[in-house]
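Run folding on both entries below.
>entry_1
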Amino acid sequence: MSINDPLSPIRLQLMWDRLIAVVEEQALALMRTGFSTSTREAGDLSAGVFDLDGAMLAQAVTGTPGHINSMARAVYHFLDRFPAHTMKEGDIFLTNDPWKGTGHLHDFTFVTPTFRRGKMVALFASTCHVVDIGGRGMGADARQVYEEGLYIPLMHFAREGKVDQTLTDIVAANVREPVQVVGDLYSLATCNEIGCRRLIEMMDEFAIDDLDRLGKHILEKSKQASLEQIRKIPFGDYKFSMTVDGYDKPIDLVATMTIGDTGIDVSFDGTSGVSAYGINVPVCYTEAYASFGVKCIVAPKVPNNEGSLSVIRITAPEGSILNAKHPAPVAARHVTGQMLPDVMFGCLHQALKGGVPAEGASCLWNLSALGGPGRADGDPAETVNAKVFTIMSFHAGGTGARPGRDGLSATAFPSGVRNVPIEVNETISPIVVWKKEYRQDSGGAGEFRGGLGQIMEVGTLDDAPFAIAAYYDRIDHPPRGRDGGQNGMAGRVALESGHKLRGMGQQTVPKGEKLIISMPGGGGLGNPRKRPTTVVAEDVRQGFISSDAARRDYGVAVNDDGSVDETETAKLRAVAAE
């Protein structure tokens, strides 16, 4: 077969690479046109291209696993509601249904059919998190999804190129930040349109009339490559459990991973039941993060698409916190769902006899702050003239130590979103971040140290109280170390005066007070006494660990000038060896 044949293996590979570039441009267009900080600054979004049956062929590298892997299922729901043969050029569809989208009302999913020469050839989909959707606002306090905001079923955003103005008017009238939210809806539509245009250019360039052969090549190759990696792991059942804080009581996440010739099956039987609060997880989001955790270890280099995802099968019992049914509250589903890669790592650690990271902070530690009349407890006279604002600023603790490497500090894993620069939210609100720095000693000790969390000190320029919507975990159950590594430091939320706040729920920061958010560090990996003394001394010089922690956890005495006291270190390690 000639290389010039449009369906030769080489040209198929070139087209596959080009398709990934197309969806990456789609995602970057969403970031560049996005209105809310979650989209344009944090990259809390996803983008992908799908065949006419709804199978995801390619996803953008930019974006989050929770969005992209749940969006992979969402397109099937759109096609059930709007069969492909009924779609017309210029149609755009949307929903924020948590069970048919990406897990909560704050995420909008847009789907746009692509037409070339009058024939439908593909579908582009994108998702982003909007700053507000009405209701109680972003948080875990609601007791039903009806309280959590405006619900938009699967419907048209535009028909044959004409936007439904009634829909955008309803959205604008029900959210606290109408310019940002409606702006993000148009950004989603725009990025899909760019994807459509680039795909048509690609098809013209390669002289192909459809994606049938290319799609089959992508899905078959990805599936087989994933199975080849899975078959290198000893077959069997591997069980692991993890306890996290929950809202009002601890939550047990229990998994059984079965590895066999046809792929990997994960069952969450034994996991805690549904919560009364908004930390429940629709099963689409459970699938998204559990499958991501598996792929990180088993086949990280295989592109993510329907083919590679098809060999990782996830189930959770109905009525459990990982398969919550309507109308359960789900606004803060990420607090629970983002713990699942750590659970998968625990199973794979047994199967592989090592080779996986320690546990990390995992769930995001976002600053979700609210101000203005009616937003904070206390005397209404204090807030009547306060500036109205709603902000979300993405931040993270430390990741677990990795095989052969320390954990990453102040890094969002598994979500992959970026820390939002504090100046951005200070520009659009009266919020001031007086301090933001690494949290010394927060990374768990080990041969490889856990990543550091961070400390933020937050106040307001208004002479008024403000509220936070807290949805934090790892306060009562810190990230665990692995293979002799120590646990990471637990998180903490408190006022500057010392009063401790809850990790979950909307709470008020009184007038004149400051909020102190201390984020967890990641767990350590391996025996701390195996960490080279010079590396420990460098950690002390950099301020990552204190000299006291060096002595206590690593058995290394560091002098004031940053050098290692070899004699004292030998004594410390000799005592530890006894």
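>entry_2
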Amino acid sequence: MTGTLDFSFSDLIAGYIRKVDFPEVFDSQGFIDLETSDGRTFTVKVTYACYAELVRNLGEGFQVTPGLKETLSVGRFIHAYGVFYPEANGLKFEAKHILLFGRDATKLRFEEPDWWVRQIQQLLNFYLEKQFKVDEGATIDFKNFRTDLSSEGDKQDGVQNLDTVSRLIYGFATAYMMTGDERALEAATKGTEYMQRHFRHRDSSEGITYWYSQLDIQSDGSVRKYMGSTAGGDEGGNAIPCYEQIYALAGPTQTYRLTGTKDILVDIKDTISFLNRYYKDHGPYGGYYSHIDPVTFDAKAESLGVNKAKKNWNSVGDHAPAYLINLYLATEKQEYSDFLENTFDTICEYFPDYGYSPFMNEKFYDDWTHDLSWGIHQARCVVGHNLKVAWNLTRMQSLKPKESYKKFAHQIADAIPAAGCDNQRGGWYDMMERTRKEGEEFNRLVWHDRKAWWQQEQGILAYYIMAGVYNDNDDYLRFAREGSGFYNGWFLDYEQGGIYFNVLANGQPYALGSERGKGSHSMAGYHSFELCFLAAVYTNLLVNRHPMDFFFSPEPGVWEDNILRVSPDLLPAGSVELSEVWINGQNYENFNREKLYVTLPESDKTLKVRVRITPAGLRFDADLLSFEGGIAKFALEGELTTSSLRYLQEEVEKLSNVKGLVLDMTNLKAIADTGWNYLLFTKQRAGVDFTVKLTNLSEAVKKSLLEAELDEEFTLG
């Protein structure tokens, strides 16, 4: 055993092209110097067996790329998959597959304004079909839902887990908010009603609600209910985990944001009462216990074994992302703001552990001393939990700014890339040893170097929101984009649909055991849908400054003072505004631009509300009203200036085979010469049959048109 590398192996390099050469060398299309995220450089030979593709979204076919000589430009970020050869004069790498993230070096496909909207639509289609067979004409009936799905989406048994059902409902509700697809709303409302009928235990006399952990649908159609969780064996079973009761609220709360259904709010409030009565530590230490006995609801019962009087990240922190932030967004009640503040104050006080480890501590005894012997966790960390804390602390900073929130989020964001990120290939690892032992130069992985889909979500959201909110470290946006590239490049299952649970370190799918499937106790339509929603919000509204539309379906008379709150997330004060509202397809003017709420009209029917959230200061928008027969009709709003012209260009360029434009200028206040030049040049390039029709011009816009001497060039209507 020499300890030297003396065999070839395939692997992935993610990096930035720093140098390009095209020498006359056997089997070479060229050589590139590729610099990884942490500054190491590899010389990559691009063989004639190498092919390149453009990253594609779910539902898209193979994306053709330009020729490699045009593609391999300095500064471009790529993934190169190939073979390492250890030879006498060093380790050599030959690329066989190159993944590009845009048609040029400056535009990333996964930051296109509608990238995540299209992805969530495909996820919605996948789960509607696999769970309910909607493509075959079946109705959405949650008695047919199953937790465990194979990699192809086939159902495995009769199990329905509480938190998995709720998480899928969250996904459906979120898909409706992004797409307006009525099937998603139907699935969210029917799923919530199913939970209420079959999983809910409501004790009206005590004012509490709790939820059964699991239903088993027997072969004869009968149902067996479970009080205690079956997850985790001795480490999680025979108890009611706090996280299951927390995640029971994820789907109903997101559905409540859409509809305002009063009975859902009763369940939310009564479940919080249950959590506060039995899980909350009312003694001097505070926080929430991780488990309670399923009979006595005692968090200190001997029957709990290793879970007796314990606290952890899930029981303390998961309230915020699972339901509490969304509940606050829907109501803006002070009691939920206070709950959030207490949650994050607790995290900032007890979770940091930087004198000992680059990772926070997340397992505790009753008095907040560190539990370093619990089950499989031991003295280890979950990388995604660290990133999740950074993400949620930054969300909270927008609601109630505190130096402690900012400091801890930055500590995590600065420490994790070196400790828990794969800087060679991209992506975030799973579980790590919290400290290095003597003689170790690398942080040790616990069981494997695979990467789970949900941990990629945490990294993408953490760094995008920190880039958008703080904008004080260029590396944060780089980490966000590198993580999004890895996720979109390797986790999307183009053949069967949906998202892979795990991939190997090099991005190839891992397809063994419970990690093979598209549904399990761990996986449902939650993290992948949540990622689509919030990645779109952060990239569009905070980073790239694009408007976004959101959809709601409020029932009549349910919202206090008829006020529908439509903020998509906790965002910095003054960073966005509500620019347009449509109710039942018609423009509606009674809304508060700065406070992001709509005062709904009196109605005895459910309303269909579409709102447009716009980055503050963005005074132009182009809304595609229709695209029929090659004619694209847009409504223009605001001021079409040199800096805002790109928004119109991007909307037009997204369409194929455009034969003409109809521009409704009712709400267009002004247009710069560059706007007229763009329209004229677009018409010129498209040919003599291309038409541009302008309607409803204001006096100021008409004057500008006449001064440009283009009134005879365009059709006025």
